Amino acid sequence: MSTSAGRAEDFLASALTTISGQTEDPDLFLKQRFTASSYQVDEIPLDTLGAWRLGDRLEHNTGRFFTIEGLSVRTSFGPNPQWCQPIIVQPDIGILGILVKKIDGVHHFLMQVKMEPGNSTLVQYAATVQATQSNYQRVHGGRPTPYLEYFLKGSRGHILVDRLLSEHASWYLHKRNRNMIVEIPPDEDVEERDDFAWLTLGQLRRQLALGNVNMNARTVLACVSYDGARAPRAVTGFHAQTVASHNAQRSDAHLAEAMTWLIDQKETYTLDVKRIGLSEMNGWAADDGSIRHRDGLYFRIIGLSVTATSREVGTWSQPMLEPVPGNLVAFLCQRQNGVLRFLTQAMIQPGSTDRLELGASIQLAPGYCRDARDLPPLVEYLDSAVGKVRMKSLQSEDGGRFHRADTEHLVIELPEDHHVEAPENYRWMTLGLLGRLMQSGYYLNVEARSLMACLL
Q: Are strands 388-396 and 406-414 parallel, antiparallel or unpaired?
């Protein structure tokens, strides 16, 4: 199989391939699969969820899937030192896996058209396999998960990516998923199923720009690196700078320095979380209808009744987290000494596995802002004429747990001579360094990884 440099060249070649005979029109394929099934999603009171029961926590009668519990938080990070909130507790390690195969000499990714009840558009491109342990062990009693065997121990192909990464740490407690990219030989036949299509990275780049790739697929695609690849002459401007950023700060010394800085940040800030009963949450109301903040802040927990003929289970009901709308994440980037760097921040979120991870330059959640004092640092760049917007798209969060959770994604390039006054927990990093940190554990939060995927 290929070396890491050869793999990067393969990925880059796939990213530059925007037309493929395997799936000639991904837009049309997505539309056709949407119309081939029927869907119905309705909000219902929590006390009508059937198999779910609400007490000091909201849980399924099997004891599986996930629970909604209360969390008491104390921290020295940010403007609010103490609060309570509901949080999703899901200890299962899920599999997010994409199957890759060279077709006509170009890497193609097997993507699934998947309906998620929380998505504003309902149907998006997803990873080949997107399943929690409860789902692929068929606790729900539904159909088997297609292509699961390629990602299980003892039957895998050539593993290109295998990383245990965090999920939304503002809404999940210590949630992790296994992000995998598995390559199979070009001559190996793969069963073609109705809702699956082979796409190049170039085709996926367009779907990312349109907001047609779900969050779980984006976190896997964020692991794709051009580290070691050289951009062809046809790749110019910001795209060439992005490829070069993948190839910068690759040394062990750069990695060690960044890790030391992050450990220093973990020592600087404190985080103490305690799971509590839903009835113990100050400022929150939990009743048969929903779980919500008394001032309408943050988010609410609602019930959904779902029918989808394309899913392993055709009808079900479940709780969902619905945030206050208007969330945004943004990277500020800048050429420094000829290399494109991205401004990251070490930030604490209450559900973080290891207290603190790197986030984007700006992570804005209007539901968390009572007044201007709660706004994050550098938010002024969102309305400034100083920078140039290099990427802007609206992306959905995990539609299996979050309802209508759409987040605007921005990348803003600043002039080389512009000085940014950033707090001490901020640091400029290249994509190459961020990629190496991602290989090393819980260092990049899911919001930052989603932005990185959009930079493909």
A: antiparallel
